Amino acid sequence: MLKPIRRALALDANLLQLVVLALFVFALMTALVPDKFLRPYNLISITYIAPELGLLSIAMMVAMLTGGIDLSVIGIANLGGILAGLFFHAYGGAHGAGLAAMGALPVGAGIAIAVATGLIAGAANGLLIARLRVTPILATLGSGQVFTGIALVLTGGPAIVGFPDGWTMIGNGAIAGIAVPLLVLLALAGAVALLLGRTSFGISLILIGTNPKAAVFAGLKTRRALLLTYVLTGGLASVAGIILSGRTNAAKSDYGISYLLQAVLIAVLGGTDPAGGRGSVAGVIVALLALMLLASGMQLMRFSNFLVDAVWGVFLLASIALNAWRTRPR
Amino acid sequence: MSFLSLRRSETVIALVLIAAMVLIGLINPAFWSLSNLFSLARSNVIVGLMALGVLMVMISGGIDVSFPAFAVAAMYLTIRAMLAWDWHGVIGPFALATAIGFALGLVNAFFVSRLRMIPLIVTLGTAAAVRGGLLGLVGTSQINIDRMPQALIDFGNTTLITRAGPGGTHFGLSAMIVVYLLAALLVHFFLTHTLLGRGVYALGSAAEAARRVGFNPTVIVFAVYGLAGALAGFAGLLHGSMIWLANPRDFVGVELDVIAAVVLGGASIFGGRGSVLGTLLGVFMLVMVSNSLILMHIATTWQRIVVGGIIIIATTATALRDRRQIV
Fold first, then answer.
1. How far is A259 from chain B (nearest CA, A)?
2. CA distance B157 to B57
3. N or C: which end of chain B has fewer CB atoms below 10 A?
4. Is residue B233 part of a domain?
């Protein structure tokens, strides 16, 4: 009975299930905290908080598509923000008008610094994984420590506070009433979806993840594709870092550590197979929406942050169990 | 003399270790002082106990990042139980902490073995659930020395040798090093002299072949994750007794140090390779380098770069060693 609807919406079973989950969470939270949850303020604040996590989750999904994982995304995001922040402080002074009212050119240079940091860091991961054949888990675990370590050495520990107005616009601004971070997320999500679905690069990633050996025998340049994968995840992570530091007007070496688990959770819940070969941007976005609604509802019900973390963990395990049950051999 | 062959990773690590000790000693002779060596030995205990668990998991072809959460849960729950029930003693509490860790390890095993999920994802999930649950449901307050059970403090404070330091102070070689080496011996015996232990290597080398010759992969996976959890639970309570306080936020990020040490010790993440001796050397190397940064006049902010660098260098070395055909 659902078949025609599914065909009409071009949704697969997994995506449909996620949409139902998101609607269920929305209905549940509306029922539990009706007065606060539906307030425009609450829903609008989600459009500011969710995008940075969404970008990290898309990055995680892309790495998982090839059968890998990128555990260094948080380190890259923070390092990019910190390097840009150091540049702004060196260029316009640590505070005052020189910093706040910085022109478009230096702000653009800061963005270029952050994104370049992400691309270079990603290329370093890619070289380790594609050339030296280090497993993605250990390569990115180690490199993530190095990126965080560099950020720590550069700042000495405390946060870099104070960014130009142009930069904080990216995290806090709105264009035509829509949050800038959300626009950035939608633009990049669309670009990644096109890249994965409509280019030979995207198809080759899925083939590599499905069967790496067959991909080599089929004549695909798997090393180059793997290298570019981690350059892409590094780039996405650095944009997440720009939004994070823009939203909080600060950059620190240990911001957003809990995002790592959440990004993995959203990618897995979004139908990505961590063993490779399966995953979609649409799934990640719907999973992100469901979990942000859940987190927001829990916060309104005054759950402690620790309990929210615990619920994320339980949710990850539950989604694994559900997937195993759904794909069980009959 | 196969033992001294450079083909053995243990020999290579031992040579690197000796070279590093000589180098650190040249930069700062205080490295060779008895008090520094004693404190170095002491610092090996907790990381080393956890590393033994991770070693078994890695040989079986898996990975575990949940053990620090299990360790802290076992420690905090046990000490809270001791305070609540006015419970004294040493063996009982350690048995409880080990059992808590073992039970949590079995949860990992269930997801990995029965639901066929990638170990990293499973253990990320259990780690968050356990740590978040502990802090959110049990409590966030630290139990300080004034409320810590005296028996545990006395046990953790046992020394083998005591020397008088400057100014009337005393320092000694912690007896916990014996506990650690005993555990290492047991794990070594398990891995090399029991059928189940050989099965761990067999499963990690070639899962299908292991199944066909009659090893039961389910039993092996449950044993490995259960033992890793048990070692973590034991190490958690031992850590509490050695530092005289129980902090439910402890052990954050320890998984990186431990995994770095195990990889440095020559274990392969693809499974099938690794030894207790290599792990002992890897742990010593890692602890020595991070403890000696101050002795070498390097700011401690560099520690993360050093640990991350060690992971990258060690994994690159093992990847080159284990280089496989085509992919």
1. 12
2. 31
3. N
4. yes
Q: Is the pLDDT of residue B1 over 50?
A: no
The CA-atom distances, in angstroms, between B172 and each of B39, B41, B154, B192, B193 are: 8, 11, 14, 33, 35
pLDDT in tens, B232-253: 999 999 999 998 888 998 898 8
Quick one: CA dihedral A140, A143, A145, A151, positive or negative?
A: negative
Closest C-alpha to B239, from B89, B100, B72: B72
From residue A99, give the alpha-carbon distance in Å to each of A114, A163, A259: 17, 7, 29
Residue with tokens 């829903």: A43
Would you list the DSSP string of A190-228?
A: HHHHHHHHHSHHHHHHHHHHH-HHHHHHTT--HHHHHHH
| Domain boundaries, position B212 | 46-253
Q: Is A12 left (phi over 0), alpha (psi -120 to 50) or beta?
A: beta
Q: Does B308 touch chain A (CB under 8 A)?
A: yes
| B327 shares contact with chain A (CB less than 8 Å) | yes
Interface test with A, best of B107, B123, B289, B304 (most A CBs within 10 A): B304
Kindly determine whether residue A138 and residue B305, on different chains, have CB atoms separated by under 8 Å. no
| Token pair of B212 as six digits | 């066909």
CB B289 within 8 A of CB B20: yes
Which positions in chain A touch B263 (Cβ < 8 Å)? 138
Q: What is the pLDDT of residues B119-141, one digit of tens each?
A: 988 999 999 999 999 999 998 88
Which residues does chain B have within 8 Å of residue A73's beta carbon, measured at their own beta carbons? none
> What was the pLDDT predicted at A149?
92
Q: Provide the domain count of chain B.
A: 1
Give the Cα separation of A182 and B186 in Å (integer). 55
CA dist B326 and A234 (Å) reads 26
Q: Is residue B4 part of a domain?
A: no
Q: What is the pLDDT of residue A329?
A: 63
Does domain A13-21+47-291 match CATH 3.40.50?
A: no
Number of alpha carbons in the 13 Å side-chain half-sphere of residue B282 = 34
CA pair distance A79, B96, nearest whole angstrom:
42
Closest to B314 (Cα-Cα) out of A135, A301, A6, A152? A135
Position B126 in a domain: yes
Chain B stretch 227-286, residues whose beta carbon is closer than 8 A to a beta carbon of chain A: 256, 259-260, 263, 269-270
**Amino acid at site B242:** M
Residue A328 contacts B where some CB pair is shorter than 8 Å: no
In a domain, B71, yes or no: yes
Q: Does the CB of B127 have a partner CB in chain A at under 8 Å?
A: yes
For B59, residues 6+ apart whose C-beta sits below 8 A from its C-beta are B191, B200, B201, B204, B224, B267, B271, B272, B273, B274
State whether residue B114 is helix, strand or coil: helix
Cα-to-chain-centroid distance, residue B108:
17
* Predicted local confidence at residue B238, as pLDDT: 94
* ipTM reported for the complex surpasses 0.90: no
Per DSSP, the three-state class of A76 is helix
Rounded to whole angstroms, the Cα distance separating A283 from A296 reads 20
